[in-house]
Write a structure and sequence with these properties.
With 204 residues, the chain is an alpha/beta fold. The chain has nine helices and eight strands. Bound molecules: adenosine monophosphate. Adenosine monophosphate (AMP) binds next to helix 2 and helix 3.
Length: 204
């Protein structure tokens, strides 16, 4: 099974992609995490795009993704979280693999900005929490899974989030037309458990 998760920032696609990947036993690939884990000169180059909320160049992300999906843990399938982000990436993806389902988690911009203002991530393992929702950490500032320190991503500032939402609507949403028959729409304005249940009912 090859699945793409789409939705505006803060819709919970990372959380839901993790839940579904565990249930289906397929790997979860977050391109944002892949890029954040880059090192050295490449990291410096990427930070200039990422910290201001811009997309990194298509050739670069496509090369990184292509290498990742060829690894052995992707043999049974995968969930892409954060890719493709524009029509060019979607067309390049069509040349590499056939996608079975596009899961689109819908959320209003207003709710997206609100949710992102509460988002914190673990410095050590990358786990995501939200101080404003039921996904808050048990102990403030500490990761439930590994005890690592929680921090706010540079691109989660209000200004960068607005820029990222603008890009989502103008560049990412048109992908839904390209994959009309594969799209499954999910209501993102529910609790984590309810969203997971809706995905289970509609995707399997
Ligand atoms: P995310 O964690 O998915 O919100 O991604 C964080 C940042 O990583 C984005 O704002 C982009 O700068 C970069 N990024 C992630 N995925 C892609 C992609 N498919 N194409 C271009 N840039 C990306």
């Amino acid at each position: 099974m090859k699945i793409v998760f789409m939705g505006p920032q803060g819709c919970g696609k990372g959380t839901q992609a993790k839940i579904l990947s565990k249930r289906l036993g397929i790997c979860h690939i977050s391109t944002g995490d892949l890029l954040r884990n880059a090192e050295g000169d490449l990291k410096k180059e990427l930070d200039e795009y990422m910290n201001s909320g811009k997309l990194v160049p298509d050739e670069l992300i496509v090369k990184i993704l292509k290498e990742r999906i060829q690894e052995a843990d992707c043999n049974e399938g995968f969930i892409l979280d954060g890719f493709p982000r524009n029509l060019n990436q979607a067309n390049l993806l069509k040349n590499i693999v056939d996608i079975d389902k596009i899961v689109e988690i819908g959320l209003s911009d207003e709710e997206a900005v609100k949710r992102i203002s509460g988002r914190v991530n673990c410095k050590m393992c990358g786990e995501s929490y939200n101080t404003l929702t039921d996904a808050h950490p048990k102990i403030e500032g500490k990761c439930d899974s590994c005890g690592g320190e929680l921090f706010r991503r540079a691109d989660d500032s209000e200004e960068a989030v607005k820029k990222r939402l603008e890009i989502y609507h103008s560049e990412t949403e048109p992908i839904l037309d390209l994959y009309k028959d594969e799209v499954v729409r999910i209501n993102g304005e529910q609790s984590i458990d309810s969203i997971a249940k809706e995905i289970e009912e509609k995707v399997g």
